[in-house]
Specification:
Strand order of the largest sheet of chain B: 6-5-11-8-9
Helix content of chain B: 40-55%
Shape of chain B: globular
Structural class of chain B: alpha/beta
Strand content of chain B: 5-15%
Number of strands of chain A: 4
Order of helices and strands of chain B: HHHHEHHEHEHEHHEEEHEEEHEHHHH
Bound molecules: flavin mononucleotide, iron/sulfur cluster, FE2/S2 (inorganic) cluster
Distance between the termini of chain A: 35 Å
Order of helices and strands of chain A: HHHHEHHEEEH
Radius of gyration of chain B: 23 Å
Number of helices of chain B: 16
Shape of chain A: elongated
Strand content of chain A: 5-15%
Number of strands of chain B: 11
Largest interface: A-B, 57 and 69 residues
Distance between the termini of chain B: 35 Å
Oligomer: heterodimer
Radius of gyration of chain A: 18 Å
Chain lengths: ~160, ~450
């Protein structure tokens, strides 16, 4: 083990202090979150190394990565835009918001721009229904969106990476 | 940022102070009785006394099922030599629900104090907060609260100098609605995929790593310090005899003033909608209400007339208060499209373990998609009913059931809209889900 997991193990060891003994397997989800935060996605070697570190069956880690929607096995664009399209957001314009973003970015939900700056996805309720329509960019919530606020944000994001 | 809707009359346990940039901190929480209930529990009460007080207060679970919290705690046998775990359910994924987010952003210490008291009552050495992976500010506020509590001796070894010790793990999910279901949540806490499991055995008998475990919602936990501070008798004076206390309601959709409100149980539903929440957007009429998250049955405008907001009244009216996630729907909204969005959600979130749910959710979504695309068939309505019923009681968790109830309740109320859509290949209305679409004319000037 030489890669990312090896480097993160000291952090994982700190987390363990608050868990009961025998809860090693519980670290899989937090550890995968941390790995993805560093690398942007979960690579094959991460799965192999994490399996070895936690001492759990490899299938458990494979299943976890596949089951939870926040995990990705392939790199996404620099800015991951996730638009809620559940009921309350749809009632406040989420469908138009998705169309607007698609037009501005030239991609459909599920796609990444060719310059790899933006990935657009639709997601289910993010508990921001009262401030709909909303989207997440990276970890941050953007609420009560309008065409003007979306365009301003896109301009800012483009500027930040070019 | 979160605001406080203080306009409503009635008692408030949570929304009773001005929210500022610092009101969530330990220092300010201490000016609002913070951790006095924990002091009282640890110094003056036995663990059993605490459970008895919570049971006597009649506290009902706020995660959706309204199960009595004291009764759940009472199942766990103290002194059985097993570790006991308490897990606070902060997964808040039921569409329309955003009150736990408010509680964690604005009063994180209240929920944490409740969790510590609950863990003491159950003699747990470790407790968990399972928070949904997408939360940002709510996560940071909860994390800060935990660190402040450790630093102040409210967590860790020998809390407040007593013999009681507790560690709390803040555990972030990674995107899964079904992980809000208690047994799925425990599987996830074990670091596995979030599959619900059959009961028995109950989680209070075999829960996290097969040990007795109590799972309670954030709002349920946040009520615990209130109960210890006021005493069960005073607590029960608030609300109705069968629904004591208050309910945090998050309201969204076509409502003029969306947001989180704290409502004393027994509050008049129409007063809440038409006065406190300002009625429907643009002065439109109310068509129907989803009372407590999309998993609860819709009620039309006349069905909420004269009904009060408490569990028994909502059930008598034909639905449930559920998670307090209320969605108001304006006249002229296409219910076929609404059903389609709801069904897409359930299909996406089915964990796939039970055949009726896995197959049924996809099947229902495809039928609704076909109707919306103009290719509906006369037999589709019966099909949707049949699939809904096939899920009833045959699945491990209630996700499948709920989807069935949600869809059939919409068809029971608005069958003519489905018939119209099928016959004419288009919506009875304009097919929009919005009253006012901020993006309606936005694309003028976009180069294609
Ligand atoms: C599909 C599904 C999703 C659920 N999601 C949540 C949730 O996000 N938060 C929650 O507190 N309870 C949720 N529940 C209910 C929990 O299973 C459990 O009843 C609750 O957390 C118990 O806490 P309480 O008694 O304090 O309400 C869900 C149930 C189901 C079937
Ligand atoms: S009812 Fe659906 S979500 Fe629940 S356990 Fe079965 S397949 Fe999974
Ligand atoms: S429906 Fe979009 S945040 Fe809840």
């Amino acid at each position: 083990m030489t890669g990312l997991v090896q480097r993160l193990i000291p952090e994982f060891e700190v987390w363990k202090r608050r868990y009961p003994a025998g809860f090693e397997g519980s670290l899989s989800i937090p550890a995968l979150r941390r790995i993805q935060e560093e690398r942007g996605y979960i690579a094959d070697e991460d799965i192999a190394d994490l399996t070895a570190y936690l001492g759990v069956p490899r299938t458990q880690i494979d299943e976890v990565v596949a089951f939870y929607t926040q995990f990705t096995r392939k790199p996404l664009g620099t800015h991951h835009i996730q638009v809620c399209h559940n009921v309350s957001c749809s009632m406040r314009g989420a469908e138009g918001l998705v169309k607007h973003l698609s037009a501005r970015l030239g991609i459909k939900p599920g796609e990444t721009t060719t310059d790899r700056q933006f990935t657009l996805t639709t997601v289910e309720c993010l508990a921001s229904c009262g401030t709909a329509p909303m989207m997440m960019v990276g970890d941050a919530f953007f609420e009560n969106l309008t065409p003007a606020s979306v365009d301003a944000l896109l301009t800012e994001l483009k500027g930040s990476t070019s | 940022m979160s605001t406080v809707n203080t306009g409503l009359s009635g008692t408030k346990f949570f929304m009773n102070f001005p929210v500022t940039d610092t009101s969530h901190t330990l220092a300010e929480y201490r000016t609002r009785f913070g951790y006095q209930a924990l002091e009282k529990a640890l110094r003056e009460m036995s663990p059993t006394d605490v459970t008895k007080e919570v049971a006597a207060a009649g506290l009902l679970g706020h995660g959706g099922a309204a199960f009595p919290a004291g009764r759940k705690w009472g199942v766990v046998k103290l002194g059985d030599g097993e570790p006991h775990y308490v897990c606070m359910n902060a997964d808040e994924g039921e569409p329309g629900t955003f009150k736990d987010r408010w509680l964690m952003e604005c009063v994180p210490h209240m929920a944490l104090e409740g969790l510590i008291i609950g863990s003491y009552a159950l003699q747990g050495r470790h407790a968990f907060i399972y928070i949904r992976g997408e939360f940002d500010l709510a996560y940071r506020r909860m994390a800060e609260a935990i660190e402040e509590a450790y630093a102040a001796g409210l967590l860790g070894e020998n809390i407040l100098g007593t013999a009681y010790s507790l560690d709390v793990v803040l555990y972030r999910g990674a995107g899964s609605y079904v992980c809000g279901e208690a047994s799925a949540m425990l599987a996830s806490l074990e670091g596995k995929k979030g599959w619900p499991r059959n009961r028995p055995p109950r989680l209070t008998v075999k829960g996290l790593y097969q040990k007795p475990t109590v799972v309670n919602n954030v709002e349920t936990m946040a009520n615990v310090p209130v109960i210890l501070r006021l005493g069960a008798a005073e607590f029960k004076k608030v609300g109705t005899p069968k629904s004591p206390g208050t309910q945090m309601i998050s309201i969204s959709g076509h409502i003029a003033k969306p947001g989180v409100y704290e409502v004393e149980y027994g509050y008049l539903w129409t007063k809440f909608i038409y006065e406190d929440c300002g009625g429907i957007q643009n002065g439109k009429a109310l068509k129907c209400i989803i009372p407590g998250g999309v998993s609860t049955k819709i009620l039309n405008a006349s069905e909420i007339e004269g009904v009060t907001l408490d569990h028994n009244s909502a059930v008598a009216a034909g639905s449930q208060l559920g998670s307090g996630g209320m969605i108001a729907v304006a006249e002229g909204t296409c219910m076929v499209r609404l059903a389609q969005v709801i069904q897409r959600f359930y299909h996406h979130e089915s964990c796939g373990q039970c055949t009726p749910c896995r197959e049924g959710m996809g099947w229902m979504e495809r039928i609704l998609n076909r109707i919306v695309a103009g290719g509906g068939r006369p037999e589709d309505i019966d099909r949707l009913y049949q699939i809904s019923q096939a899920n009833d009681g045959t699945t491990i968790c209630s996700l499948g059931d709920s989807a069935g109830y949600a869809c059939s309740a919409i068809m029971d109320h608005y069958r003519e809209e489905f018939e119209y859509y099928i016959t004419n290949g288009r919506s009875m209305y304009d097919g929009n889900l919005t009253v006012e679409d901020p993006f309606a004319s936005a694309l003028v000037g976009v180069a294609s």
